[in-house]
């Protein structure tokens, strides 16, 4: 009996030791993660105020951001302004990035995490570098693939590696490292809503102008000089007063680059609150580009206290004109084809389509 009890005790001890070993093995990653819970760049937030240049480079392209006072400019796009929010998002992401787990120290496995040398053809890794005005390096980090989230409660994470270091890490945090310059540009040109528009005139090169006008914001637009018997497509007509709603571009370059381009047309939009917006379009490298001019003059008659809420007061409209003019001055914008079509509508373009008799 005593021997049986001793045997049972021995078995229980063995089982307890085995369970402890399994538990230790299961818990090891959690303890390792907690030990590695540290910033990738300690104290970086305090140093980023000195940042002057940001470069994001991949084997097939790069984007370089240059600081100019309080603004950031995209070097690859002729120093056109970058979106302030995107730059701020990048800096916050770098400052808050935290190492949580070492993934591998085998360079042969780096490509599986998207952490191979960024100069390697076909590589998906991105080298992010931030330097101060003197060229001193504040940040140098190779950014790889994001962790696939298997549960909504898991935080965002990305694989990273320091250049020259033979270790790859998983780091918690959100970090967008886009190398397409267009994704960094402030691409909104202006937004003039239909409710404010008093008249629109479009003229394609070599064609007669087309004008839509109304006397008050509550009136319907009238096609000026409408030929007898002409039936207009009301949907296409309504494209015209909406032509400047959410106007954005797909590329940008200095306006002088259009000096030798073929004119494609012109559009002018006047608002009831005093804005005049003129767009001149030109053909350049199989695309249509536009230069934009914006001005303000006090509306006549002056807006009354009962003016529609969509219309801006004189001081607000004047400030809007100055802001837009400063943003577009000296630049040419590549427009989407459908928008360029609207801005150069001809009479035949707004004609109602005949019903198919069959």
Describe this structure in words.
By secondary structure, the protein is of the alpha+beta class. It folds into 2 domains: 38-184, no CATH class; 188-350, no CATH class. Helices cover 22% and strands 32% of the residues. The chain has 6 helices and 20 strands. The strands form 3 sheets. A 10-stranded antiparallel beta sheet has the order 1-6-10-9-8-7-2-3-4-5, sandwiched between helices. An 8-stranded antiparallel beta sheet has the order 14-13-12-17-18-19-20-16. A two-stranded antiparallel ribbon has the order 11-15. A hairpin with an 8-residue loop joins strand 13 and strand 14. It starts with a helix and ends in a 16-residue tail after the last helix.
Topology:
Elements lengths: L1 H34 L2 E2 L4 H4 L3 E8 L2 E8 L2 E4 L5 E2 L2 H13 L1 E7 L21 E7 L4 E10 L10 E5 L6 E5 L15 E3 L6 E8 L5 E4 L8 E2 L10 H6 L7 E2 L2 E4 L7 E10 L3 E10 L2 E10 L17 H15 L2 E4 L2 H6 L16
Antiparallel strand pairs: 1-6, 2-3, 2-7, 3-4, 4-5, 6-10, 7-8, 8-9, 9-10, 11-15, 12-13, 12-17, 13-14, 16-20, 17-18, 18-19, 19-20
